[in-house]
Amino acid sequence: MKKFNPYLSSSLMVIVLLMVWEFGARAYNKSFILPSPAEIAFTLWELRSVLFLKHLPPTFLVIAIGLAISVIIGAGLAIWMNASKTAEKTFYPIIIASQTIPIIALAPIFVLWFGYTIWSKVAVTVLITFFPITVSAFDGLRSSNKDLKELMLTMGASKKDIFFKLDIPSSLPSFFSGLKVAVTLSVIGAAIGEWLGAQAGLGYFSRRMMTQFDGAGVFAPIVLLSAVGIALFLLITLIEKTLLKWRKAA
Amino acid sequence: MNNPALEFRSVSFQYLSEKKKVNAPILTDVHFTVNNGEFISIIGPSGAGKSTIFRLVTGLEQPSAGLILLNGKQVKNRLGLVGYMPQQDLLMPWRTILENAMLPLEIKGIKQDQAEEEVLTLLKDFGLEGTENSHPGDLSGGMRQRVSFLRTILSGSNVLLLDEPFSALDAITRLTMQEWLLQQWRNLKKTILFITHDVEEALFLSDRIFVMSENRISIHKVKVPLGRPRSIRDLSHPEVVRLKEDLIDQLRPRVES
Ligand SMILES: Nc1ncnc2c1ncn2[C@@H]1O[C@H](COP(=O)(O)OP(=O)(O)OP(=O)(O)O)[C@@H](O)[C@H]1O
Ligand SMILES: [Mg+2]
């Protein structure tokens, strides 16, 4: 009887929690503070066209641009640090230090710099997501087998051969782990960015509902944000599974 | 073609440590000649410098003095000229068997379909038919070593260096692989240098044995008094048994002195 759906236990847990929440909220009966799951679902349905057509696209754009920039900067930095000891010594400490900055506190500065354009939100997203991508790509590149490198040298391999045929494939498992962390963080980054000031977006919408004491209206876009995060995570997992087929399922 | 396949002329070597400090020499004034088509085993205690000789031949290291000649010519950049098979199979887990074996051809810039054809024929000869789309993780240790050997052959060089290729295999598989290797060597007409810790393995396989001593004084060259083809039973020949005991005595570190 071990062949249950692998998500069965977590699904059950979620259902139990939702039920507790539903009954708790009904008993409490102040929906502007604690809306019940049913109310949130209802609001989500009611506002579907506004949420999906007006506010989801700008948020998604922020996430996509932010992640793309992070992957380019992160992979680029990782490759550079792997190729040059000087670059590693220069950038690695700075990258670590950048993570000790409370990004939420820094975010208003981006508004000062970029105004209420999309770029202030993208900047927050990049700042949150480039770290796991850079570090995991760098660790992955560094993990390539030195004996294999020497073997390739004895075959007459060039630096380019070693980079493309050894370093890159060796780095992929680690890179994907970092990317999975980054996509979930990117949703948070976009939401924070939009809270600070925007004309549209799920984070912005959630905040506007807060000022109107519409509890369910606050939660509905958050549910959607979380769904976007899960969808992105699953997408990356799918790409990973196709690309790294050789890895045995543990 | 009458040139020796490999020749060391008074080769000396020492590793340079990180801080450019000079370590104790590993090889001093080493001479030897390996003829075309010969099977040579190198035995010696751990740390004697056996693998170091291979690193010198492949060009991963350069001698601090002396000459290394390949097929009668001195070549400074030897990378890509000798086939080297490391102790671990070192197959790339993300590549299929076919892609792994194709690696040296890819590096040489040979066209994809031509390389594929060459590998597929060899896979058949090596009893690895049908594994071309598997990944190394799906194969047994003996099969992986065969793929690794195949990849070494595809380097295209006439000199093959095998560094303890069978030491990780169980006794039975190892015997099968030894017989298989001799058969391949006969068919391919390559020159093989073979490092091993196992005196019996060296006696069974080789024409001559190079014995390296722990004190790194000299390389002792011993001819194996057996014809070909040979079977594992030939090793109980009294002359061979005496030689074996003699070799083991040479390898064992002297406790007295
Ligand atoms: N890259 C290196 N830098 C410095 N010293 C090294 C290096 N590689 C090997 N050595 C040293 O050189 C000596 C000879 O090493 P080598 O690997 O050639 O021995 P070996 O005969 O192959 O031993 P084994 O049977 O254990 O494989 C050893 O003392 C080793 O510590
Ligand atoms: Mg060795």
Q: What does this protein look like?
A:
The complex is a heterodimer of chains A (250) and B (257). Chain A is built from ten helices and no strands. With 250 residues, chain A is mostly helical. Chain A has one domain (34-244): MetI-like fold (Orthogonal Bundle). The longest helix of chain A is centred in the last third of the chain and has 38 residues, at 159-196. Chain A is globular. The mean pLDDT of chain A is 91. The model of chain B has no long low-confidence stretch (mean pLDDT 90). Chain B has helices at residues 50-58, 97-108, 112-125, 141-153, 171-188, 199-205, 238-251, and strands at 6-13, 27-34, 39-43, 65-70, 73-74, 83-85, 159-163, 191-195, 208-212, 219-223. In chain B, a hairpin with a 2-residue loop joins strand 4 and strand 5. With 257 residues, chain B is an alpha/beta fold. Chain B has a domain at 1-81 and 191-257: Rossmann fold, CATH 3.40.50.300. Chain B starts with 5 loop residues before the first strand and ends in a 6-residue tail after the last helix. Classes of the chains: A mainly alpha (250), B alpha/beta (257). The A-B interface holds A 145, 147-148, 150-158, 161, 165-166, 169, 172, 244, 246-248 and B 58-60, 79-82, 84, 86, 88, 90, 92-95, 103-104, 106-108, 135, 137, 155. Chain A: One of its GO terms (cellular component) is plasma membrane.
